From TrEMBL:
One of its GO terms (biological process) is protein maturation. Signal peptide: none annotated. Belongs to the HupF/HypC family. It holds the Pfam family HupF_HypC. GO terms for molecular function: carbon dioxide binding; iron ion binding. It comes from Amycolatopsis sacchari. InterPro entries: Hydgase_assmbl_chp_CS, Hydrogenase_HupF/HypC. This is Hydrogenase expression/formation protein HypC. NCBIfam families: hypC_hupF.
Amino acid sequence: MCLGIPGRITEVRDGVLRMGTVDFDGIRREVCLAYTPSADVGDYVVVHVGFAISQVDEAEAAKTLAVLSAIPGALASELGEDA
């Protein structure tokens, strides 16, 4: 299953393609931020297959992460971690 997972931006790098590091409840991944140009460090974005596709507030991100955390292995599976 492919889900959009919310995470907090911890670093932004502007170059040919706007990239950043996003923290998903302790799991960090490199993410393309080109589709969320106003998102900055500390903001939450929904990430699908390595691309931030929308910006969300902290409360919405927390609700989604809580649901995913209730499903054993869901978050790790979506982020490519061993369950």
